[in-house]
Amino acid sequence: MAITRQNRDCLGMPVGPTLPQSFGFSVVRRTGSNMIVTTVVLQGATPNATYTVRLIQLGPSLGTSDCPGVDGTVTTDEFGNGEANVRENALPGATHVFVDLNNTADPNGDFFTTEPVSLSR
How much is the pLDDT for 121? Predict the structure, then answer.
């Protein structure tokens, strides 16, 4: 999944203008032990910054997500590139997940997300 500057709410819905430029990618999978694992590859972001990583799981009914909480971090180098592996337990009933990244120094102005993807096996 492409990582873009598209802002999304806690239900994965786009907020604001569509911003399709890619700043890397994330590979998400559900393991046999019911974990959600992602590799985040951030490219061309703010140099020497630390971004929080949230795996936001969505349930089958509108209005259910696990939006609060941080699942990991990724730190960029002098070129704005960084990579991290993050995992969390799959929640009962979770059907989709998306990745949300926020710069700890500017969480509301420097952020990235992916589109929600299915957690089906």
Answer: 55
